[in-house]
Design goal:
The protein has about 210 residues and is α/β, with parallel strands linked by helices. The chain is about 25% helix and about 20% strand. It contains six helices and ten strands; from the N terminus they run βαβαββαββαβαβββα. Strands 2-5-1-6-7-10 form a six-stranded parallel beta sheet. It has a two-stranded antiparallel sheet with strand order 3-4. A two-stranded antiparallel ribbon has the order 8-9. β6, α4 and β7 form a beta-alpha-beta unit.
Length: about 210
C-alpha cells in the first residue's frame, strides 16, 4: 500500500488535482503554500495553477521578453540556469494547463471555481457558506472554516430552498447538516492528512 513513508517515484503515477477556492482574502494562497511545503517534504512533485480574474503582468516592462510580447509575439519562452517560463498571449483552460503538468503528482489549483475537481472551500464569513451550495464539490472535497464562520455555522444550518443570507437559519449544528468534511483554518496538519489519504486511495485503486 502506498503511504507517505514508502512513497517513491517508481510508483505508477495517478495525478491528483485539488482546487482551493474561496472569495478574496479568504486565505487561498497561504493555504496552498502551506500544502506545497508539506507535499514536498513527503517527496511529491507539486504543480500549481492560479486563475486571475483580472489581467496580470508576469514580465517586467522594459525587459527583452516584455519587448517580445509587446511587439506581438504569440508565445515567448525564457530559460536560465535555475528556471524557465513560457508566456502566451492568450488565455488557456484549466484542462490545457493541466496537460502541461504531466510530471506533477499533485496539482494545486487556486480558483477556477466552476471546475469539477475535489475542492477545499474556504469559508471566512457566514455569508460565504453559499459557496458550498453553488459549487460542484465531488468526493474528496472539504470546507475550511475561519473561526468566525465556524462559530456561526455551529449554530446554523443551510436551507437550500431559501435564497441569500436568509438561508442561514438557527437550527441543527453545522456538522449534521452537510455531507462534507470540515476543518478549522488552523488545522493544517489535519487538512494535509485528509488530502493525502485521498491521494493514497486514488493511487491504490488505479
Amino acid at each position: 500500500m502506498l503511504t507517505e513513508q514508502n512513497y517513491n517515484r517508481d510508483f505508477p503515477r495517478h495525478q491528483f488535482v485539488l482546487q482551493v477556492v474561496g472569495y478574496k482574502n479568504s486565505g487561498k494562497t497561504t493555504l496552498i503554500t502551506s500544502l506545497i511545503q508539506r507535499f514536498k517534504r513527503a517527496g511529491y512533485t507539486v504543480g500549481t495553477v492560479k486563475h486571475d480574474a483580472h489581467d496580470f503582468t508576469m514580465d517586467t516592462p522594459g525587459t527583452d521578453t516584455w519587448k517580445h510580447q509587446a511587439a506581438g509575439a504569440d508565445i515567448t519562452a525564457i530559460s536560465s540556469s535555475n528556471r524557465s517560463a513560457i508566456l502566451r498571449s492568450r488565455p488557456e483552460s484549466l484542462h490545457s494547463l493541466l496537460e502541461q503538468m504531466g510530471n506533477a503528482d499533485i496539482v494545486l489549483v487556486e480558483g477556477f471555481k466552476q471546475e469539477a475537481y475535489p475542492k477545499l472551500i474556504l469559508i471566512r464569513e457566514p455569508a460565504d457558506i453559499k459557496l458550498l451550495r453553488e459549487l460542484t464539490s465531488p468526493n474528496g472535497s472539504a470546507a475550511i472554516l475561519w473561526p468566525e464562520a465556524n462559530t456561526a455555522l455551529n449554530a446554523t444550518s443551510i436551507n437550500p430552498t431559501i435564497k441569500g443570507e436568509d438561508s442561514l437559519l438557527a437550527a441543527d449544528p453545522f456538522p449534521s447538516t452537510l455531507d462534507i468534511p470540515h476543518f478549522d483554518i488552523s488545522e493544517l496538519d489535519s487538512i494535509y492528512a485528509f488530502i493525502h489519504s485521498r491521494i493514497v486511495s486514488a493511487a491504490n485503486n488505479k
